[in-house]
Write a structure and sequence with these properties.
The protein has a single domain, classed as Ribosomal Protein L22, Chain A (Alpha-Beta Complex). Helix content is about 35%, strand content about 40%. It contains 3 helices and 3 strands; from the N terminus they run βαααββ. Helix 2 runs antiparallel to helix 3. The radius of gyration is 17 Å and the shape is elongated.
Length: about 110
């Protein structure tokens, strides 16, 4: 039974989030939690909260009882969110654009 959890409008660029999510793809859920706890990237904390939410969805919201130790991270999808456009003043009255990117993350969990 597949369970999923979504995190939308994460204020970290998708490129940086994909580095963290690639660490946990295909791993057992309990092993993925331990990996994320000790990963020093800024994106690891929100992805850990999302993974815990997906595990809770799998154990509590399904009709059949599922043990948390039997879950595996089947797929992690990281997509682009909206971009906040800002400007940085430069010399001679010019302005450079700064793109502050957001990402949408979805975790799919399945039992073994």
């Amino acid at each position: 039974m597949i369970a999923k959890a979504k995190l939308r409008f994460l204020r970290i660029s998708p490129r940086k989030v994909k580095i963290v999510t690639d660490l946990i793809k295909g791993k057992k859920a309990t092993e993925a939690v331990n990996i994320l706890k000790f990963t020093p990237n800024a994106a690891a904390r929100p992805v850990l909260k999302l993974l815990n939410s997906a595990i809770a969805n799998a154990t509590n919201n399904q009709k059949q009882k599922v043990n948390a130790d039997d879950l595996i991270v089947k797929e992690v999808i990281v997509g682009n969110g909206p971009i906040m456009k800002r400007i940085m003043p430069r010399s001679r009255g010019m302005a450079y654009r700064i793109n502050k990117r957001m990402s949408h993350v979805t975790i799919l969990i399945d039992n073994i």
